[in-house]
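Obj: model holo form, ligand = flavin-adenine dinucleotide.
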Amino acid sequence: MALRPVIFWFRQDLRLSDNPALAAAARSGSPLMPVYILDDRAAGDWAAGGAGRWWLHHSLVSLAKDLEARGLTLALFRGDSLEILSALCNGIDAEAVFFTRAYDPPGVALETAVAGMLKRIDVAARRFGGALLFEPEAIKTKAGGPFQVFTPFHKACLGETVAPPAQSDLPLLPFRGAPGGEMLADWGLTPSKPDWSGDLAETWEPGETGASRRLEAFLSGELAAYPEARDRPGEAGTSRLSPHLHFGEISPRTIWQRTEMKAQSEGGGVAQAAQAFLREVVWREFSAHLLFHFPDLPEKPFKARFRGFPWAPEEAALKAWQRGRTGYPLVDAGMRELWRTGWMHNRVRMITASFLVKHLLIPWQEGERWFWDTLVDADLANNAASWQWVAGCGADAAPYFRIFNPVLQGRKFDPLGGYVRKWVPEIAGLPDRVLHSPWEATEGELSAAGLTLGRDYPLPIVDHGFARARALEKLEEIK
Ligand SMILES: Cc1cc2nc3c(=O)[nH]c(=O)nc-3n(C[C@H](O)[C@H](O)[C@H](O)COP(=O)(O)OP(=O)(O)OC[C@H]3O[C@@H](n4cnc5c(N)ncnc54)[C@H](O)[C@@H]3O)c2cc1C
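Output (holo structure tokens):
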């Protein structure tokens, strides 16, 4: 007797390699119907933002192509996941739905509801890990609770063995006669008027092929200098794997295994660099662990005393920050890099975030929102945990009283000014000495650079010394 079909419900695991749920579906030997559902209602306040939607569109194109090459057609649907999955199960008489588990609150709520619905209609829910190195329940403190501090968490992870990637070349049997879905082009995930996505398309290659190309290029290129170069925004010193990881186009296990293989074959400095890189991958794991155990993380300060922080938000200051017109070149360069490419260097994320929260006294949630809409790697766990880290209110956060000086940070991490000159071209003609503090330029330097401050480029919207003292005063109020 022929086996009943199964549905493979793609979520944030848009890949065919090292996808344990897909490998299990393949092993079942049943004909397979691959499905993706765009369910903004279930994602609630955290439905993908503009840049994320652009990425999703291209990632789905890539996934559909890869499935096509394996003889399967990806069916696309929009709307209520429960209704759609239930109708599909009934329509094709499915035996099971296979999927990868999520760790963010909307994702967890959705899969719990789906599992309940499947139980009612007598269809098996087959849920698998795959988005993390370790399940968040598996890494525990000695007392059996969740970790709140990175270093012991990291140590605990290093004490575990990362499972090898799941088999990726199992035959996938297509289910013939599945109902056709919608057209991706009708979803309007990419911008039309105005189309701001030109630089994104030039910068990125969404999809599984792009992800593994990026990993391999990083391992044979940037990795060797990662520990030093990762802090210099003017250099391509990091992996840029974050959007690929967010959409599940590559698994952390594959990254782990390939990096360890590289470290073993090269040894020496490369092996050390590999450890530094994998430590960052564990930061991702830590963020997911925190969000899973503390689901309020995107909305509420982890440290309760910050709930009463006396913020003083001003709309004009927020706009200046968003548009990269604060008058602080490194902050502005970062905000413009973000707007144009959907990504920002980690060091500059820390500096721009600190500037918003501490110099402008705007709640970190406003910055988190803006990043959510503009980052191609916008990720609920990493974004929330990082904003709280910068704001000083998170688990294991940078202390609030550590306030980045954007001028000194610029001189230290962009000493030759390549990054600032790229993203803030109107001040490119200034000499290095004043590039990070244009207001200190002499009349002669300004006129040689063809620059009038306040007209071509803003004067600082707030004085650093004043802002620093004000932020510390506010901190005293909640001590
Ligand atoms: C305010 C703020 C907001 C952020 N928002 C996001 C976000 O929405 N999505 C996101 O993926 N990262 C976020 N980060 C973390 C970090 O900046 C990015 O992960 C990193 O810049 C991505 O570039 P990369 O892939 O080249 O990193 P690499 O240095 O090559 O690191 C490899 C991988 O490790 C993970 N990683 C690196 N740094 C961190 C970190 N500090 N926290 C958690 N995981 C990390 C990422 O998955 C990354 O792809 C944020 C950081 C700050 C300060």
